[in-house]
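Thread: adenosine-5'-triphosphate complex, take 2
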Amino acid sequence: MEELVALCKRRGFIFQSSEIYGGIQGVYDFGPLGVELKNNIKLSWWSSMVYENDNIEGLDASILSNPLVLRYSGHEDTFSDPMVDCKECKSRFRADSIENKCPKCGSMDLTEPRPFNLMFKTSVGPIEDENNFAYLRPETAQQIFTNYKNVVDSTSRSVPFGIAQIGKAFRNEITPRNFIFRVREFEQMELEYFVKPGEDEESLDSWVQKRLDWWEKQGVPTDQLELYEVPMDELAHYSKRTVDIMYKFPHGTEELEGIANRTDFDLGSHSKKQDELNIKASVKQNKDSNSKLGAQSDGGDWFVPFVIEPSAGVERGFLAILNEAYTEEEVEENKRRVVLKLKPHLSPIKAAVIPLKKNNKDIVDLSTKIKDGLQSLALGRVVLENTGNIGKGYRRHDEIGTPTCITIDFDSLENETVTVRDRDTMNQERIKIKELQNYFIKSIK
Ligand code: ATP
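Output below.
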């Protein structure tokens, strides 16, 4: 973990948030390379959900919502962790994370566990009082449920179908820890997949398999993962069954993604409350459509769909992917290199173009032209590495996972060829400039 944290800082993947003022616990910033890797992870998830399935739609809903959403979803009452306080040093811990002794000062004088709600509250509008507040969402899922009918009406979907969303979620974790593993502000990639009641159990099993396959394609092999059946007494308030995909993180084996059978809990709860409150939502104005938010007709019978939810944290995925990719190799005797063997579709930089001489105008001009040509293919970021030190360029790009380095030298001006170097094998070959685009596309796909 220490090596990963050091690499992240050194190369600009992840910084501590507000570092110049001493930081803020459980919050991180993603630097120039971190934002690229994060975007690539999200794009890969989005493609696998929204583009590669013919029955999944996307959504980007708000972080703030009417407080009733999180009241009737059950979060206001139940989204809490048990915590204990040390009466001696006043530190606060998650009850399940400690034995019966304070990890900070060793005192055994601890309070009984008490529930601590994990939702952040903020005031809305100019007047700060109990009536003008909203929660920052603790999961992206709720706004999918509240938009269920909008999506159905605007896309004519019927079950089985899914709604996918990626976005920020906030949890006031009692003890944020292990770098970006447990933080207070993070991103989730969530799919809510709606099925007929009775088809839910099979659907959950199939989503577990699909998600394992997806992690494998991101470079997190199944043999580094374990499935954990969450026991009944640990299930979230909405869940009938949850299977966690656990990864062997550097600090221990913990949850990477949860796949929950949320039953008809959320759609049912919001529909019921809407009816009780007699809310005149626009969805009710169409007499032909059922008034209930989450109901669908099946040959005349109305039912509330069940929902299967694969929910993965971007930061935990980032950490797992980085951990799998991180490699130290002996190159020659007493010479080691650090190389990030990222899957090329995730690499923050797809290729580096390196001029042999940084002050030679012809070489730099040709390098710039080559860089622009590769960049225009829109397959991700390509950089011009004009430091005049090829060895240093290779070392840097090995360490940040760039699949290909392209060196432009005097011969390139004469015979229109360049040297391409493969990150993993370190093999170098000479290829024609006109073949470079195809080579580049192949190296990424
Ligand atoms: P944990 O038991 O580790 O607190 P959870 O069961 O509360 O996690 P879920 O509610 O299932 O987590 O959230 C879905 C996913 O969101 C998790 O699998 C994880 O990847 C991510 N996630 C949840 N909480 C955090 C957090 N505090 N920091 C980073 N990622 C998180």
